[in-house]
Amino acid sequence: MPLLRLRDGAGLHYETHGSGPPLLLVPGLGGIATFWQRHVPALARDFTVVLHDHRGCGRSGPSDVAYSVGQMADDVLQLMDALGIARAHLVGHSTGGAIGQTIALDAPDRIDRLVLSATWTRADGYFRRLFATRAQGMERLGRGYYGQLGNLVLYPPWWLSRHADELEAAQAASPVPPTEDRIVLARIAAILAFDRAAEVGRIRQRTLVSAARDDAVTPSYFSEDLARRIPDARLSLMPTGGHFYNHCFQAEFERLVAGFLLA
Known about the structure:
By secondary structure, the protein is of the alpha/beta class. The chain is about 45% helix and about 15% strand. The protein has an 8-stranded mixed β-sheet, sandwiched between helices. Strand 7 (about 205-210), helix 8 (about 220-230) and strand 8 (about 235-240) form a beta-alpha-beta unit. Helix 2 (about 70-80) crosses helix 3 (about 95-105) and helix 4 (about 125-140) runs antiparallel to helix 7. The two termini are about 30 Å apart.
């Protein structure tokens, strides 16, 4: 798969699929393109789908920089430039949604329509406690504990009850190299520092805000607040599905996103 050399020499793994208007699918804190893999066949029928592993994550390889959401957004813009994409739709999940907000605010001509999935604009007390606990778990008990705790909060209980074994097997068999612990911790610090709450009212792109009501990572009140702040934003809340509701209800998510982007 292609590897883009960013302006500072760091690598950025990316891939493209399909044809049509460009559509950036930007993953969350894990930063791995395979988060979107199951959605590619459906979305690539109508769009040129662009995926990437965030700098420092997975196949992009380690990178020692001052991690921030602004830096992550700049990497996306460098990828767009390298691919000759002047303007694209963007679907951002969680941290990817923070990246989408940043590009929409700081480089508005680069974004056509915007989908903000299970994301937030500013860390609150709950969000800080959750990610402090996850970071402490990694530091004290290691990556295995971090992953187990992550699964418990990323998916709803009913889904884990049915799919825990296959999820663990898939994660164990993943060909994507794990992101180094120090980079995961630096990225957690970056998302805790992110705050565009006072500015999202300036977003003028047609925007869909989507989440599940039982999300335990970015509770749905974040999405409700985003939809209130962004002019004419559309809000879609699934009754269940957790933070990874797009995995629990794959077909429904694909219909929602394609319907919004193609309307």
